[in-house]
Write a structure and sequence with these properties.
single chain; alpha/beta; Rossmann fold; binds the ligand O=C1O[C@H](COP(=O)(O)O)[C@@H](O)[C@H](O)[C@H]1O
Length: about 230
C-alpha cells in the first residue's frame, strides 16, 4: 500500500487526477479500452473536475460508479448526477457512462437488470476510486450492514448488491468486492483530520479481522489489488 499525503485539497485533486489518468492511458494503450469506477459524496468533486479536463482517449473509457443511492439523477444525492455534472464535461464528455440505478422502484427490484448491464458491458474494471465515510464505510459497505456478507463475498458471482438497511435514509446499490477485487488498481481518497483518525483506527493490525466494524479494512488488509491512499496531511 502506498500512502500519499498532500498539503491541500487542490493539490490532492490534481495529483490523484494525474495518477488515475496515467493508469487509464496505459490500459487503453494495452487493451484498447479501460473501465473506471468512481465514488460519490462531497470529496471527489475537485478530483472529477481535474480528471475531466485531461486529454485522455475518453471515447475508449467506460465510467461507472462504485455505489449509488436509489434516486433519480436530478436528486442532489445522486452519484450519477454528480459524475455528469463534475466529471463528464469537456474532453471527458466522450466517455461512456454506465449508471447503477435503473427504472425499478427499489434496488432489490433493480438488482438483476443492474447485474446484467454490468456483466454485459464490463469484463473487468481497471481502476476504482473509493471514498471513506467517517464511520469507516467505503462503497456502500456499511458497518454491521445486513448486506455486508454479500457485499464482501469475494468468491460470489454477483458484481452488485442492494443495500437496504432500515437505518439508511436512502437505499443503495453497491459494487461488490467480488467485482472490485479483480480490478487492476485501486485508490482510496479522503480528506481532513477526522478521516485521518478514522483511517489510523482502521489500520490497527490488532483489528484486522474486525471488518464488520470498519468495512474499509477490506481494502487495507488485502493483497490482491495494488492500493494507493490519496489524502490530505
Ligand atoms: O455515502 C457515501 O460516502 C462516501 C464518502 O463520502 P464523503 O461525502 O464523506 O466524501 C463515498 O465514498 C460513497 O461513494 C458515498 O456513497
Amino acid at each position: 500500500m502506498s500512502d500519499n499525503r498532500f498539503e491541500s485539497s487542490t493539490v490532492l485533486a490534481k495529483q490523484l487526477a494525474d495518477a488515475v489518468s496515467l493508469c487509464l492511458k496505459e490500459r487503453v494503450e494495452q487493451k484498447g479500452r479501460a473501465c473506471l469506477a468512481v465514488s460519490g459524496g462531497n470529496t471527489p468533486k475537485a478530483f472529477f473536475e481535474e480528471l475531466g479536463k485531461r486529454q485522455l482517449p475518453w471515447s475508449h473509457i467506460l465510467v461507472t460508479l462504485v455505489d449509488e443511492r436509489w434516486v433519480g439523477e436530478s436528486d442532489p444525492s445522486s452519484n450519477a448526477g454528480l459524475v455528469r455534472e463534475h466529471l463528464l464535461r469537456g474532453p471527458a464528455k466522450a466517455a461512456y457512462f454506465l449508471p447503477l440505478k435503473n427504472s425499478a422502484l427499489t434496488p432489490a427490484a433493480g438488482f438483476m437488470a443492474c447485474e446484467n448491464s454490468l456483466h454485459e458491458q464490463i469484463s473487468r474494471l481497471d481502476v476504482a476510486v473509493f471514498g471513506m465515510g467517517s464511520d469507516g464505510h467505503t462503497a456502500s459497505w456499511f458497518p454491521h450492514s445486513t448486506a455486508l456478507d454479500r457485499c464482501l463475498d469475494e468468491s460470489g458471482s454477483a458484481w452488485s448488491c442492494p443495500v437496504m438497511d432500515t437505518e439508511l435514509a436512502i437505499p443503495r446499490m453497491t459494487l461488490t468486492w467480488a467485482m472490485l477485487s479483480r480490478c487492476q488498481k485501486i485508490f482510496l481518497h479522503f480528506e481532513g483530520d477526522e478521516k485521518n483518525s478514522v483511517f489510523n483506527a482502521a489500520c490497527d493490525p490488532g483489528q484486522r479481522q474486525n471488518i464488520a466494524a470498519m468495512p474499509v479494512r477490506t481494502l487495507l488488509f488485502q493483497s490482491q489489488v495494488p492500493l494507493s491512499i490519496f489524502r490530505t496531511s
